[in-house]
Every structure is written in structure tokens, then in C-alpha cells.
Amino acid sequence: MSGKLTRQFLIYGAVCLCILLVPVVVDDAFLLNKYARYLVFGMLAIALSLSWGYAGILNLGQATTFGIGSYCMAMFLKLKTVPVHTGSEGLPDFMVWNNVTELPWIWVPFQSTTFSLLAGILLPALFAALLGWFIFGGRIAGVYAAIITLAVMVVANLIIIDQQSYTGGFNGITDLAEFSFLGIDFDAYSASTYYLVAASLTVTLFLALAVSRSKTGLILQAVRDQEERVRFFGYDVALYKTFVFALSAGIAGLAGMLYTIVMEFASPTFLGVPLSLSIVIWVAVGGRQSLIGAMLGAILVTGVQGALSESEAFLETWTLIMGGLFVLIVLLMPKGLAGAIEALVRRLPQAGNGRSARHTEPDHRPETHPNLGGTQ
Amino acid sequence: MTGNREQLLALRQATVSFQGFVAVDRLDFSVAAGELRCLIGPNGAGKSTTLDLICGKSRITSGEIIFRGEPIHTYREFRMARTGIGRKFQVPSVFRELTVMENLEIGCSREPGVWHNLFRFSGGADTERLERLALLVGLQDELSTQAAHLSHGQTQWLEIALILAQDPALILMDEPTAGMTAHETNMTAELFNRLRGQHTLIVVEHDMGFVRDIAETISVMHQGRLLAQGTADEISEDPGVREAYLGSGGIGHA
Amino acid sequence: MDFVVSQILTGLSLSSILLLVALGLAIIYGVTGVINLAHGEFVMLGAYGAWLLQTQFGWNVLASLFVIFLAIALLGWLLEATVIRHLYDRPLDTILATWGLGVMIQQIVRLTAGGELRYVQMPPGLSGSVDILGATDSAYRLFVLGVALGLFALTWSIYRYTTFGLKLRAITQNRAIASSFGINSGQAYRATFAYGAGIAGLAGALISPLKSVSPEMGTTYVVDAFMVVVLGGVQSLMGTLASSAVLGEASGLLAYFSNDTIAKALVLVAIVIIIRFRPQGLFAPRVRA
């Protein structure tokens, strides 16, 4: 048992080390910026793996909290820009174009660095906590919970596009100042930004690993398996689900903030259905029940996509291939690549093991068993 | 018999109806601390529903349920469980994707808070106790086996062990010997006799041999109401019970 | 007076489109329990079918309806046989798989027919307008309304009066027991899926002269159709009819009083609230084991 744990730590550590060492080999600023983007997606995948893989909550609107985080950062950086198009001090350009004369109250606190950085994580978490309580407190699970997350995201997206004078509408928030913190300037096209993202990813990964390994993580897996049963042991299932939902949102929010730094803008497409679908695909491909699998799935898929994006027609074909791959994985490999690799590793040393004979007999049973949990 | 012991659980005029069908009808039923009570009756008598009411799986439409002096029927399920009630379901329900040891850790729910459990990792202080429990139900060699790979009897045992890990004052057992071999059933009877006194048990069972082995007091339900109550011999002499069971071939085969 | 009538007619037209689009989804969901997120793409394919037959062979929309129904039904049959049937025990995975299928279909259309908007001509005999109680309405819209009601009546009769419908109702009640009485639920599911898909294709073809045709058009329709099904209640065809009528009229009014974006957002908020507070009334009839 503990041997397995050590191995897991070693693998996770090795992968993170590789990620952190990339700028030693690569010094092309454009490449680093691209890689940093992939890492942000990896972080998003970790967030979804926690809620979907561990707790069985399929969040089809993971991009909502990602978007909130990215807008928090964008608002903060926008207020740091020297206003070019306006006479009134500190008023973002698009507000002036929309005849807003005074900084709206939602924007005011984003003048503070501390508030902005905290808000980027805590606002999404709070939003998810309220939504989670709304959903799980009403015992809504499975497909219906998924549909609610999707609908809420589309509503958020519509509101942002509609409220143009406060959000920049369809164009989002552009022309941002450079992020600088603790005396370090994070130019989007520099190793410093890459390190910032890579370090955040490492911390997030190990934090998520700790949660998944804790008893709370175990209880969440039990909830995924048989929600009803967990309740009769005295656990407040709704609270557990809300917790992991909010934690996942906080991570997505952090990813959103980093994404704004890397991309130098925020846009309503960040809260879009296509991105949310992509996150689900990455996690399904990598393996939803493996944090590192999900993360690498995201990096792998977006990496290949990035390499192909030179040609427009090819990108369209790529989307088609991804759709097909996704359907196949859902159909044949519900645990993704990580699950397949794990099964392979488990089979190898067991070939000559005496226990395997006893295990083959009850193996027929699992799949056909009627699901007692109802709507999972 | 129950008079000289402290009363642990009481159902008073408990009634539940599902879309007009009255499954439990103004039931008065009480159990004393440390007792092992068997609940029998023909199919559809409302036995499992009564257990559902006590653990919160179903809600009473009227009446009350008092446990340790608290009106628990107003609580949500998890709060009811926290007052010290554990339930073994008729269809064994364990966490099939988790290992036996992980299952036991879930069962051990004295500290049910999210925050508290965030800082608890396996291999903690409970391990020894849980290993002893696994030994008690004969699963000591299966600790890292996934529960989905256990046999039916082993799954029943695992769920019983889960309840013991939970360590509730009141244990509700719904047909614990279903699907067990004669040998396994004997072991279960032995285990229950050992539990009596430390825990209070309510056992719904169809196997009358098993009931005779373990019961001190038997309650008979019929059409949602309590028909008779007494020792095994008193029950089999009772004319009302005989009548209720007539169609199903006598009490021995119920 | 004629304002009221014309407002009602606008609403009715919206209702008929909703009914057409939701009918297929409702049947599939009611019988098999699958939320088919590729449903909008079936609608889109139907519209492209009408466009293709018109531009390539000069077919009138009405002439192409039957061919389109058969083609999309065949596609539904194939998808059920290859993908969906493996997922009946994994509801969460069905929405993922159908979502993925939807993306594929959209992408295939974009790659072959291009991403630009396409337009389909109205059938010449129906391009005029009709006077009703002082208000005028397009003859084609009235025709669509008639077809929607006709299709509904047909579907309802199949469900209610044929042996096949009886089998469907038995399966919906309890799949295991129905199977033990020799009803082949696999076949029934496949037929249902094909029929639902065919109806969606038909809906797309009928809608195509009223709207512009694009690869993304399905997305809106799947949301609308889902809303109808949620509001109407699963396994209740009459509920589908009623909720199409209510929603059509309501969104007609909503669009009149506010802008489109807010109307859309409100509809979604309504979905969320209904799912949250009436899940038992709208979804619980799922008694399948």
C-alpha cells in the first residue's frame, strides 16, 4: 500500500520536474507562451478530474469558473493600464465608448492587488459553493446536475455579452497592463510567466493529490459509487459534494487568472460551451480518475492541436478526429489512457501470482450488476 | 422483559402511506437498550418500511419516532445516522469500486466533517480496530481486494463489518442471512449473540431457524401493524399469527 | 384585435417549431431514458438535406420530406446500433457520447458543405399569406403548424393503439419484466431511436425555409427541445404538446417585450429552476431497473 503511494509521489514529482525544467531547454518566447497555455489547460483538467473523476459530478460548465477567474485578473490589469482613449482617470476605454462616466461599483475593489488575486480564486469558489448547495442540497445528481451546470454557464455567457458597458461585451477585456507581483514582471512571452504557471500547476497537482488521498477524498469516491449509502453512515453528502465542487472551481479560477496573464485578454469565449466540452474531452482521454492522467491528457491533446493549428482546414479535421476519439473513449475506455495503463501495469506482475486464480472467477459479475445508486 | 431496561427507541402511532397505500399503519413499537429484537411477518407486512422509517430512508406521514429521547423523525438522514443508528440493507450495498479496507474506513464515521477528514489519511489510528473487524467477519485476507470482486456472502459480511465500524447504538439488519450458506448463517447467529448487550439490534429475517437461534423477543407485523409480540414459543402459539400466516404455509416457512 | 391575433399566431408558429423539434427528443428520452445531445444535429442534417436536394436536384421541400425522414432515421438506427446501445446503463456517458457525436456531425457538415449560411426556398404553392380574423399569416407557417399537429397525432396513435406502442409502454414501465414477457427491448429501443431521429430530420427540413441553415443551428434547437421535454414531463406526449404551446406563446411574448439575449437567459434559468424544484414530478416516472 505505502509502496504504491511512494511510486505515485515519485511519478507526480518527476512529471512536475520535467515541466519546470522546460525553459532550460526551450528559450523561444513564443513557444514558452504556447506551453504555458497548455499547462493552464492541464490545471483545468485537474479541477474537473476532482469533481467528475472522484466525486462523480460531471461539470459541463467548468469553464464558468475559469471565466470568472480570468475576468477578475483582466479587470485588475485593465485598471492598471494607462488610459489612452479617455480623459477621465482610470476608466477603461470600452466604458468610455459606452458612455459610462464613473467606474462601476463591481470594478472598484479590483484596484487592489490583494483583493483581485484573492477574488480570482475565492469568487469562483463561492459561486460554485452557492450553485453546489442549490443543486446538491436538492438531491439533484447525475445527468440533471450536469445539465444545470451547462445551462448556468450559458446564462453567465449571455449576461457577459449583454452587459457590454461593464464587461466589454462580445470583445471581452483587452489592452491589459503587464502583471507584476512582488517586484517580478510577468511578461506573457517570457520564462517568468512560464515558471509562474508551472509552479502553480505543481502546487495544484499536489494539493489535489493530498485531497484525493485524504479520507474526504475517499468519502467522495464512495459518494460517486453509492451516494445514498454514504448518507446512512452519517456523512452530509451535499456538503461533501459542495466542497469538492467549490474546490474544483477555485482551481479553475486560478487557471483562469493565469490564462489572462498568458493570453493578455479575457473574452466571453472563456465561458463557452466549446471550451467546456474540450475540458471534458481532455479529462476523458487522459483518465478522469487519475489527476495526472487528466492533466497530461489536456497537455497532450492541446499540444497536438497547437501543432496542427498552422493550417485552418487541418484544425477542422482535428476537431472531427477529437470528436470521434472522444466517443470511442467513452464507449470503450471509460477510465481513459491512465486507466488503460494502470490495468496493464496491474496485469503484468500478477501473471505468476497465486491470488490471480481466485480473482478470475468473480470477475464475471461486476459489469452486469444493476446499479443500486439510481441515477449515477 | 423490556420493562426493566431503559427504552432506546419508540415508534408512536407511526404511519406512512405511499400514494394512498398505507405501508405502516399507526404502529406502536419500542425497543429497550441492549435488546436483540426480531421483526417477522409475511411479505408486504411493512417490516423493511419500518426499518426505512427508523433510519430516515422513508419519512413518516404522521406519528413520531423517539430515539434516546430525541424526535429523530424531524432530522435529515445523515443527522439520524449521527444519533447512533446504523442500517444494513436487504440488497448488500457496499462501495464496489473501493477496497475492503477503504470500505471499512468509510464505515468508521465518528468524525463525519469534511474539514476534519481532509486531514485524515489511511493508516491512521483506526487501522488496528478495522483490521480486527475484518478478522471478525473473515475478510482479513481481502483487505486490498476491490469490493466488486467479493462473493455474495462476503459482501454481506463486509456490510455487517461496515456497520460495526460505524459502531452505532442501534443496528438495523434487513435480512442479513439472505444468500448465505448454512455455515455462514450459523456464524452470523454466533456474531449476533456476541453483539447483544453492547448494541441494540433490530433484525428483519425470514429464516425462522435463525430467528429461533438469536431472538429473545419477536415482534410480528401484519398489514402495517404490530400483530403480536413475545418469545418464539408464545408467537407460534398465537392464534392471530397463525391466521395471518395461514396462506404462506405456517411460521416455519415464512 | 388583429394585434392580439397576430401575436397569438406568431406564438403558434413558434410552438409548432418547438413541437416538431421536441417530439423526437421526447420519444427517445421517454422510452430509452437517453438525453440525446446530438438531437440538434439531426435537425440540422434535415435542413441541410432539404438544401442539398433543392440546390442539386431542384426538389421542392415538400417533395424531399420523405427521403429526408428515411435518411435521418437510418442514421439514427446506425448510431443506436453502434454507440448508444452500449451505454444504456451509464446515463452520464450517454450525454457525453451523444455530445461527441453531435460535434462530429457538425464538423463533417462544416468540412463538406462549408460553414457559410444556406437558404432554402419556400414551396411555391405556400409562399403566399392567408388572412385570419384580420391578421395575416404566412401560408407556409400555417402548413408547418398543420404538419406538426399531424405528426403529433400520428406518434400518439402509434404509442396508444398499436402493438408496438403497447410494447413501448411496457418497456417504459419496467424493462426487465417486459423482457421476461418476450418483448425485445433492444429492438424497440433501436426503432424508437430511429423514429425520433427521423422526426428530427423532418423538423429540420420543414424549418429550413423559415430560418437560415448553418452547421451550428442545432445547438439552439437541442436546448429548446430539452426545455419542452423538461417542462412537459418525461413519458408524457400530451405534456410535450402542452409545453410546446405554452413555451411558444411565452417566448413570443418575451421576445416582444425584451431583447433576445435576455429571453434566452430567462428560458435557461427556468430550466434550472424546474429541474431543481420539480425533479420528481418531471423526471421521477423513470421506473426502469
UniProtKB/TrEMBL annotation, chain A:
It is found in: Cell membrane. The keyword Transmembrane applies. Pfam families: BPD_transp_2. Residues 358-368 have a biased composition (Basic and acidic residues). Residues 352-376 are annotated as: Disordered. InterPro entries: ABC_transp_permease (IPR001851), ABC_transptr_urea_perm_UrtC (IPR017778), LivM-like (IPR043428). GO terms for cellular component: plasma membrane. It is a multi-pass membrane protein. Its main location: membrane. The chain crosses the membrane at residues 6-26, 38-57, 115-136, 143-161, 192-211, 232-259, 265-284, 291-308, 320-345. GO terms for molecular function: branched-chain amino acid transmembrane transporter activity. It comes from the Bacteria. Keywords: Cell membrane, Membrane, Transmembrane, Transmembrane helix. Signal peptide: none annotated. This is Urea transport system permease protein. The lineage of its organism: Bacteria, Pseudomonadati, Pseudomonadota, Alphaproteobacteria, Hyphomicrobiales.
Automatic annotation (TrEMBL), chain B:
The keyword Transport applies. GO terms for molecular function: ATP binding; ATP hydrolysis activity. Pfam families: ABC_tran (PF00005), BCA_ABC_TP_C (PF12399). Transmembrane segments: none annotated. InterPro entries: AAA+_ATPase, ABC_AA/LPS_Transport, ABC_transporter-like_ATP-bd, ABC_transptr_urea_ATP-bd_UrtD, BCA_ABC_TP_C, P-loop_NTPase. SMART domains: AAA. PROSITE patterns: ABC_TRANSPORTER_2. GO terms for cellular component: plasma membrane. Residues 9-248 form the ABC transporter domain. Keywords: ATP-binding, Nucleotide-binding, Transport. It comes from the Bacteria. This is Urea transport system ATP-binding protein. It comes from Gellertiella hungarica. The lineage of its organism: Bacteria, Pseudomonadati, Pseudomonadota, Alphaproteobacteria, Hyphomicrobiales.
Automatic annotation (TrEMBL), chain C:
It is a multi-pass membrane protein. Its main location: membrane. Keywords: Amino-acid transport, Cell membrane, Membrane, Transmembrane, Transmembrane helix, Transport. It holds the Pfam family BPD_transp_2. The chain crosses the membrane at residues 12-37, 57-79, 139-159, 221-242, 262-279. It is found in: Cell membrane. The keyword Cell division does not apply. InterPro entries: ABC_transp_permease (IPR001851), ABC_UrtB_bac (IPR017779), BCAA_transport_permease (IPR052157). This is Urea transport system permease protein. One of its GO terms (molecular function) is transmembrane transporter activity. The keyword Hydrolase does not apply. GO terms for biological process: amino acid transport. It comes from Gellertiella hungarica. GO terms for cellular component: plasma membrane. Belongs to the binding-protein-dependent transport system permease family. LivHM subfamily.
